[in-house]
Amino acid sequence: ATEGKEEASAAENNPSRVPQGKPGERSSVLYSAGQFFFEYLVVVSLKKMSDGHYEPKITYQFPKRENLLKGQKEEEERLLQAIPLFCFPDGNNWAPVTEFTSETFSFVLTNVDGSRKIGYCRRLLPSGRGVRLPEVFCIISCLGCFGLFSKILDEVEKRRQISMAVIYPFMQGLRESPFPAPGKTVTIKSFIPESGTELIKLTRPVDAHLEHVEFQALLQRLSPHLILHIFASAVLERRLIFLAEELSVLSQCIHAVAALLYPFTWAHTYIPVVPECLLDTVCCPTPFMVGIQMRHLERVLDQPMEEALIVDLCEGKILRAVGDEEEILPIKLQNEMLTSLNRHNNNNNIHTSEQVNTLVSEAFVQFFVRTVGHYASHIKWSKNGSGTFQERAFCKAIASKTNRKFVKKFVKTNMFSLFIEEAEKSRIPQEGK
Fold it and tell me: Exposure pattern of 176-195 as b/e (b: 16+ CB <10 Å)?
């Protein structure tokens, strides 16, 4: 049992947008252009054990690391131990198949020092005849950019159908290329037998804080009304459980919910797809945002858990709620956001996913601007340049009664404290305000 607990703490994931270091410390590592695209590419395959069950094991790792220091070696071993669990979180009841639709999902691992790594996964069936088992190609990177890595995984999958040997030179070329700045493109040359040299262009979106997000995934499955209930629960740092069968749906929707909080950051347990052996995470008394496969619904409902919001992404409904979700957000602002979300829903076919991302994000950023946008004028600066936030004056300055009632709860959250700690350190107004 202790082993599971250690893995749970390794998996206490925070959303991939801003790594959480020590409280209040934000590193911009996810956005830095010019660094390595990825740390590892691993292949996780299912190996038959003596009892007939299949267990996920790493069968290929690139690059192999030599001459690691003791501490680095331990960290690498811990990382490589956790990866198979998250590539096949659905447990061990697999059987060989002849057909399998490949799927893309991601997970986040938090290191002991608070730094974060993201695993971008493509689960596919290797080409061949007869029954065989799916395998997962997993790219480990500390860079958050889902669209870009999905495209890289497309290339990996295309090469896998030819032979494993063709993947290596492509990944080597990628490893030697610098990660592009937002809005910029990097071109990778890659040779494929039979079809010659290809040029693969990888472009980062202009808006770096939305590059790990697909809001459309959320709008396709939930009504704007329910999205606001979820947002209200997340803003007050409650316990949120999302259910769906597909790993891609879970990881996309949870990343999207976490991104609605921008410019704030979810600072608690965050596991887009909970491996079967960590299901008791839902008994945790602290806040969490987790994704669980629908097949485990009965087990989850049987667990002794504190109040939580349980969302069924397959049916687009809430299975369990605290009951006050409707009253958390100020009603006037709630209605404005509803109008805004409904508008995007109606024009869904006109917008590209980038446009939907921008429109949705804007509606939620505006909510924060309207409620807490005046925070900067309530930081008192001393002569030595350190700032102190005047919480009472800040709350008092809010004219609307309903807005003030909401803000008094919001200032008690961890995400608001971290944001303010950051603001007290820098005299430059925070991004997004």
Answer: ebebbebeeebebebeeeee
Whether 390 is covered by a domain: the verdict is yes
Q: CB atoms < 10 A from the CB of 278, how many?
A: 19
Q: How many Å apart are CA 139 and CA 120, to the nearest integer?
A: 5
Rounded Cα distance between 263 and 18, Å, is 10
Q: Which domain holds residue 170?
A: 40-206
Instruction: Spell out the residues 6+ positions from residue 63 whose beta carbon is closer than 8 angstroms to its own.
Output: 40, 175
Long-range CB contact pairs, 346-349, < 8 A, 24+: 348/216, 348/219
Given a cut of 80, whether residue 351 has pLDDT beyond it is no
* Number of domains making up the chain: 2
Residue 233 banded pLDDT, cuts 50, 70, 90: very high
* Nearest residue to 149 via CA among 125, 117, 126: 117
Residue 13 clears pLDDT 60, i.e. is over it? no
Helix, strand, coil percent content, the chain, rounded in steps of 5: 40, 20, 35
Q: Does 223 lie in the same domain as 318?
A: yes
Q: Which is more confidently placed, 31 or 408?
A: 408
Q: What percent of the chain has pLDDT over 70?
A: 87
Q: Of 160, 177, 206, which residue is a domain's last?
A: 206
Can you tell me the distance from the alpha carbon of 23 to that of 30, in angstroms, rounded to the nearest whole number?
Answer: 18
DSSP string, 28-56: -GGG-TTS-S-SEEEEEEEEE-TTS-EEE
Token couple for 400: 């609307």
The DSSP secondary-structure symbol of 97 reads: B
Cβ–Cβ < 8 Å for 144, 270 = no
Q: 331 and 415: one domain?
A: yes
CA angle at 111 for the pair 239 and 253, rounded to the nearest 5°: 40
Bridge-based pairing state of the strands 239-244 and 288-293: parallel
Helix (H), strand (E) at residue 335: helix 331-346
What would the pLDDT profile of 391-403 be if each residue is shown by its tens digit?
A: 999 999 999 999 9
Would you state the pLDDT for residue 113? 66
| Rounded-to-integer distance, Cα 116 and Cα 107, Å | 10
